[in-house]
Amino acid sequence: MSASAFRPRAVLAVLALLAALSAAGLARPAAVHAAAPTPQYALTFDDEFNGTAVDTSVWNHRTDVRGNSAQRAENVSESGGAMHIALKAESYNGKSFTGGGLVSKAKFRYGYYETRMRLNTGPGWHSAFWSTCGAGHDIFSDCKPRPSEIDGFEIDSASPRDIRMNAYGTTTSTTGNYDMGFDSSAGWHTYGYDYEETGVSQYIDGVLTRTIPFSAADNVQDWVNLWLTTIAFNNTPDPAQLPATVDWDYVRYYQQGYYVDNDGPTQAGYSESGPGWATSSLPGFAHSTSRYSCSPGVRASWTFTPPAGGTYRVDTWNIVDPASPPDIAYTVSPAEAGPHTVAGRSGTTGWVTLGTDRLPAGTTQTVTATGSGTGCLRADSVRFVRVA
Ligand SMILES: [Ca+2]
Asked: Which domain range does residue 356 map to?
C-alpha cells in the first residue's frame, strides 16, 4: 500500500467542510470520512453508531478493572449518530472512577481500521483504538497466550495533542508520543491504522503520519478483536472535570487481502477430499496449523467470493519439505491462466503466486491442490489480494 495513493485534495475538502460545520456549531459532521488508503480496499465491517443503543450482537462491553477505573457497560451509549463513553467519578468495583468501551465479537486481521473521535476534556483518561484478542472482561486472562496487540492509537487526555501507535508481538515497537498539531479534545478528527503483514501505518485526518515495519521475527500476525475504549490510566482524573464523554462517530474496517485457511475464522472456505488427512507438525502461515495427506489423488480446496469486483492476485502458502511432492498441481477456477505447478521440495516456505484474475463481484473462485501420491500434499492458506 502506498501513501501516494491517498487523495489529499479530497482530504483538504473534508477538512474545510469540517471547519465550516464546526463554525456553524454543528459538533458532529455527518457522513464524511477519509476513506481507505487505496480504491482496492473494500469496506467489510462497520458500525456507524446511528442507533439508539449499542448493537450487542456485534459488540461486547469492556467491563474490566484496570489502572484507576472500573469499566461499566452502562457508561456506553449511542445517540445522535455517535457512540459515547461516559467517564465518571463514582465508587465501583474498588475504584473511584469508571470508564468503558466496546470490543468486537468478531476477530479481524489485516486491513485498514478507521474511526472519527472527539476526546474528553480533563486529565487522567486513556483512550485507545486498538486490536488484540479478548472479550473485554479481563485483558490478561481472556486469551492465553497473549496474542499480538496493535494500538492504532493511544491518547492520554492529560496531553490531548499527543498520539502514539504501538505494536506488540514477540517484540515491542512504538512510535512514542508525537504532536498531532491539534488538540484532540477540541473537535472531531479521523484516526486510522493499516495493519498488514509487513507493518502497521497510522493515519490522522487521512494523512499517513507514522509506520512501524514488522519482520517475521516480530510475530504480529494474529486474528484479533477490535477495541474502542477509554479508561483511567497513566494519570489521575480530576473529579471537577467529570462527568465527561469521549465520542466516537463510527468505526470502519476495509480489506485489500482475503485469507482462506484450514484453521481460524476463515476455515469455512477450506475443504479436503480423499483419505488420510491429518494436522501436520509443520506450521502454516502466521503460526497457524497446516494439514497433509500422503494418499494419491487427495485434494485441498480454498474458495473465495470477493466483496467487490476487481482484479485479484492468488497466492498459496507453500510449505517446502523433503516429504512434499516434487511438483504440486494447482488449478484456479475461474482463471485467466493455468494450471500451475508449484515446487514442493525446493526453495523456501512462503507465498507463491498462482495468477492474477479479473473477478466480477459475487464470482466464487476456487483454488485446488491435488496430491500425486509421490510425497505428502500439504495444505494451509491461500490469499486473494485485490490489485486493481
Ligand atoms: Ca493454517
From this structure: 259-386
